[in-house]
């Protein structure tokens, strides 16, 4: 087990950080002229923390198990975010990636290393937080767990292929192939939200709430591939700082704002949200007792 862990750290150092240490990357972000870049991380740490506290306060009197499950899913979005953004701020999940020949940023240097700053920790945020967004949206729409878990699988695939696009250094064509593959998975998720879950929300009685949530989520999510394509990982029209702030603003919209809009509805525990005393039991009609 220890050898596997050591191997993982060696791979991280060799592939993701390209020789730059966590300390060097931390000093690069929080020193010199990169104050705005650092603030794009710190702001999200603060907002994620406030969101966790806000959900805990708003949901303190929830009694229905289904309402509680939705609230927990919403809270876990920010739990992942505060952890991941702390990794970015500390330099742990930052790296310097040398772009392949033909890339506009090929030949650039960062923190004394050949390559550009890669915020690969953001992909960890999206990989682990977007499934909780989809769980909350799916439950509010009244969808079944098969469809909810299917969208979660596709969003994990979308984020991991996006990470592959960001880290591929062998070929510019392969970088864009990974991006195209990630976009295909993205459109599957968007289809489920806009078509299937919209219809299910209308039947469930949560259409008004779901309309607001899907607008904030889908419009915000379209911004991510656009920023990737225009940012330093794509055609490098936007700087690393501008790209980071773009991602941070989109995270604020699709995570924290969506969370509070949903929580305001959930805490009222309307009939369209509640599931009854036996919700979550593996046997219908059986209510698990407290240990």
Automatic annotation (TrEMBL):
It is a multi-pass membrane protein. SMART domains: Bac_rhodopsin. GO terms for molecular function: photoreceptor activity. The chain crosses the membrane at residues 36-58, 70-92, 123-141, 148-170, 176-194, 215-239. It is found in: Membrane. InterPro entries: Arc/bac/fun_rhodopsins. GO terms for biological process: phototransduction. Keywords: Chromophore, Membrane, Photoreceptor protein, Receptor, Retinal protein, Sensory transduction, Transmembrane, Transmembrane helix. GO terms for cellular component: membrane. It holds the Pfam family Bac_rhodopsin. PANTHER family: BACTERIORHODOPSIN _OPSIN, NOPA (EUROFUNG), PTHR28286. Belongs to the archaeal/bacterial/fungal opsin family. This is Halorhodopsin. It comes from Halopiger aswanensis.
């Amino acid at each position: 087990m220890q050898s596997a862990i050591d191997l993982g750290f060696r791979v991280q150092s060799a592939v993701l950080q390209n020789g730059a240490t966590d300390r060097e990357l931390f000093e690069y972000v929080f020193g010199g002229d990169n104050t705005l870049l650092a603030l794009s991380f710190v702001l999200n740490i603060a907002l994620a923390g406030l969101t966790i506290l806000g959900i805990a306060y708003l949901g303190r009197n929830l009694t229905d198990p289904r309402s509680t499950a939705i609230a927990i899913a919403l809270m876990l979005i920010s739990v992942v975010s505060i952890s991941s953004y702390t990794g970015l701020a500390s330099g742990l999940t930052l790296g310097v990636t040398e772009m392949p020949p033909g890339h506009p940023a090929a030949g650039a240097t960062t923190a004394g290393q050949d390559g550009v700053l890669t915020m690969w920790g953001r992909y960890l945020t999206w990989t682990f937080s977007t499934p909780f967004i989809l769980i909350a949206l799916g439950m509010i729409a009244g969808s079944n767990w098969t469809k909810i878990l299917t969208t979660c699988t596709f969003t994990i695939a979308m984020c991991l292929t996006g990470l592959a696009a960001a880290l591929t250094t062998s070929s510019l064509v392969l970088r864009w192939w990974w991006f195209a593959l990630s976009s295909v998975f993205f459109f599957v998720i968007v289809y489920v939200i806009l078509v299937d879950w919209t219809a299910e929300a209308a039947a469930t009685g949560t259409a008004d709430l779901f309309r607001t949530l899907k607008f904030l989520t889908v419009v915000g999510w379209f911004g991510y591939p656009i920023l990737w394509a225009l940012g330093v990982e794509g055609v490098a029209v936007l700087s690393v700082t501008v790209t980071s702030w773009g991602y941070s603003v989109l995270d604020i919209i699709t995570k924290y704002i969506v969370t509070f809009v949903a929580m305001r509805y959930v805490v009222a525990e309307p009939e369209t949200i509640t599931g009854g005393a036996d919700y979550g039991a593996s046997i219908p009609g059986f209510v698990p007792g407290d240990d």
